[in-house]
Amino acid sequence: MKDLKPILSTLWRSKSAPLLLILQIAVTFTILVNAVYLIIQKEALLIEPSGLDEEVIFTLHTNVQSSEAEEMIALVKQDLRDVRALPSVENVTVMNSFPLSDWGSYAPTGLGPTEEDMNIYTGYFTGDEHAIATMGLELIAGEGPSEGEVQDSIDFSADTTQTVVSKGFAELYYPDDWRAILGTTVYLNYEPFIVKGVVKELKSVWPGWYSHANTVLIPLRHISSNYKMLIRSRPGELEQAKQQVVKELMKTPGRHLDKMMDYQQIRTDKFKSETAAIKTLYWVIAGLVLLTLLGIFGQARFTVVKRRKQIGTRRALGASRTDILRYCMTENAIVTSVGIVVGVICALLANVQLVNHFDMAPVPVVYLFQVAGVILVVGQLAVCQPAWMAARVSPALATRSV
Amino acid sequence: MLTYYFKLAWLSLRKTPLLSVLMVSTIALGIAAAMVTYTVSYMKTKDPLPAKSDRVFTVQLSVWGPDQPYRTADGQEEIPEMVSYRDAKNLKMAGKAHRESALGLFKMMSRAEEQAQRDAQMRMIRTTHNDFFAMFDVPFLYGGAWSEQDDSAGNQVVVITKTLNEELFDGANSVGRHIILGDALMQIVGVMDDWFPIPKFYYLSSHAYRDPESIFTPLEYQINQEIFSRNDVTWACWQDIEDVAFSDFMASDCVWLFYWVELESGSDRAQYMDFINAYVEQQKQAGRFARENLSRLFTIDEYLRWAKVLSNENDMAVWLAFAFLLACLLNCMSLMMTKFYGKGSEIGLRRAVGASRHDICWQFLCEAFLIGLFGGLLGLLFAQLGLQLVQQIFTYLNANIMQMDLRIMLMTLGLSIVTSILFGLWPIYRAAQIQPSSQLKSL
């Protein structure tokens, strides 16, 4: 610590070079904190569970070769029976849209039937009595629909009066005790529905949507000229199940299959822009760290070259190599720390802007400490070589050319 | 004299190669990062139809039912961005605009006539009127748009894209040949040349960065054939649609079409809006349009802003990149500081033999200029590599976004030179302050 005073007075006497470094570190710090925070937020979105057992599920679209309502329903039921009978298939259901798949319906929702009551939009799914088991949703209260309660819907027409809701949905209206929603009536699209069950998690088709966690699942077999099937394979038999399903369905002449995708694929597709943004941010961080490393290294080397004579004199006057080494490292630590302090202020200011302009949550303080730690370590690493160079300056240098 | 300074600057750069390379590449890195993100953002948000930016409009009608608004956003009632077939037909019949087209979409298995049935592929088919092509300045490679007659009769004709033509017909002139949509034989009347409007403004915002559909066919064909892919396209109704009959759906207020008009000039906007209001009034008499009339026209730019196609993510990337550039410039500034300090004795000597501070400043300004120039050139190279990389990462975006035009290239060079000089000013000022006496002593 006895170095502290001479270091400070040296820095004060030639301010410009350290000042630049301080500015650079502050800017770096600002970008790093916000970039790291963005990455963490986006990665959380990537791994957020949808509520489905994604590793054993795949989906497809297929056509119905009839335009008569009765016949269409019979054909679809037959398809479902055929697929369910396959050895590698555990269960199958027909839905209107699939979570995370980007195309789906939403419904204005409220506790009453009037326009004022409709205070939020919720994700709207339909499925038959196998939907909950096929998706692998965890039913945490009440019950799902029985076979007799599922209605057939040609092109969205049907009068259902009950629904299963997600826990997120229940907590919207009963924040203190979500179980209280069981048996109550909610209004979807201005129509009354009795809540029969609550599932722990069922996400909407649009990640990042404000109402992503709030969904309802209506007992409907939703059919039109083509329909959407969600299939659950037996564990580890996803590929066999896919092949068997294609083979089975293609037995019908004139059958079209479309968009056969397993859930990993749906997830990857849905989050491609986030994944891309994360990759870009990693590049930014790598670039910045490298740049800072170079900046500090260059600066430290320059200082050492400039001070060779002084260092020689100190050595001649009895300073050990460790003293010189410590002097350089401490000096760097001080400059970096000042940079970080300025950086914290800039980062917070920048974050306020980000919060205002881009609807982001403010950065938690813990990130500030973590990034500060990283920069300090990077700074010390960068200064190692120049400090070592300084320590090796020979005392004899002081005696020359004075 | 300037030539001499440039020569000095060049020699000085050559004398400390490592430091020069560091300075130039630091600037290049920052410039490249800034320009790559700027390019992507600029290309994503530039005007897709600049020649008609003030006279092409999309029409939005207050068609919703009496009980509830279509949607509310921030407490404000929103009207649908799409129109019903009924209204589209009425507007088209009235023919008040110079050019006008409704835009629908459906999904169908499609193949070339020569292909086997199992080679058929599911494709999205764009349905529209023939004005679409002229209104949006769509270039044609072979043939052209279908006729008015095809429009009104709903004939089995299609226009296909160059990409599809290459896929199905190896790029040959396929006008007069056929493709099969579902079971129907469709005659090709036109093959489009490359046409990738960015953003793809004419349909839903979620489609803004997808390529145009590969097959276009008359809207009336879709109506005649009673095709509607309810599970695959976006639509909305305020009425309960208990009845499944196609004709009832088309006669309803269900919205599923975009409606675009081109007027003779931008000043006709008010006049056309009067026509729309009169139309709404007339429909109100007939018992439709029960809500307050919020109908409106949007230019392409207004629509894209309203639909939030110009996303925040982009702006954020640009801000990050420019902050990165700032860090690079600061780094380069401290390197220049180092460099000029090292030249203390040379400056002292030059000053002692008669150079003024002014001369010293000019000499170093030339050096900063050279650094900026080389940094800019190298930055351009890095930026091209960066754009390649971005293309690898953002595979889902149209590749045409990742291209610099001449204006951006010149901007890159300019930015590099200007910022290098700007950030060189302080080091230069410090260098010019050096006293001849202090340096000459130790020589």
Number of strands of chain A: 12
Provide mean pLDDT of chain A, rounded. 86
General shape of chain B: elongated
Discrete helix count of chain A: 11
Task: Evaluate the radius of gyration of chain B.
Answer: 31 Å
Largest sheet of chain B: 6 strands, mixed, barrel
Q: Approximately how much helix is present in the residues of chain A?
A: 40-55%
Tell me the overall shape of chain A.
Answer: elongated
- The end-to-end span of chain A amounts to 30 Å
The total number of structural domains of chain B is 2
Strand content of chain A: 15-25%
Helix-strand sequence of chain A: HHEHEEEHEEEHEEEEHEHHHHH
What order do the strands of the largest sheet of chain B run in, or round the barrel if closed? 5-6-11-8-10-9
Total discrete domains of chain A: 2
Task: Please state the average pLDDT score of chain B.
Answer: 87
Task: Please describe what this structure looks like.
By secondary structure, chain A is an alpha+beta fold. Chain A folds into two domains: 4-47 and 273-399, no CATH class; 66-253, no CATH class. Helix content of chain A is 50%, strand content 19%. Chain A has helices spanning 4-13, 16-47, 69-84, 131-135, 167-173, 238-249, 263-270, 272-306, 308-316, 321-358, 365-391, and strands spanning 57-63, 89-95, 105-110, 120-127, 139-142, 151-154, 162-166, 185-188, 191-199, 215-223, 226-233, 257-262. The radius of gyration of chain A is 32 Å and the shape is elongated. The relative contact order of chain A is 0.18. The model of chain A has no long low-confidence stretch (mean pLDDT 86). By secondary structure, chain B is of the alpha+beta class. Chain B is built from 15 helices and 13 strands. In chain B, the strands form two sheets. Chain B has a six-stranded mixed barrel with strand order 5-6-11-8-10-9. The two termini of chain B are 27 Å apart. The mean pLDDT of chain B is 87. At the A-B interface, helix 2, strand 11, helix 8 and helix 10 of A face helix 2, helix 11 and helix 13 of B.
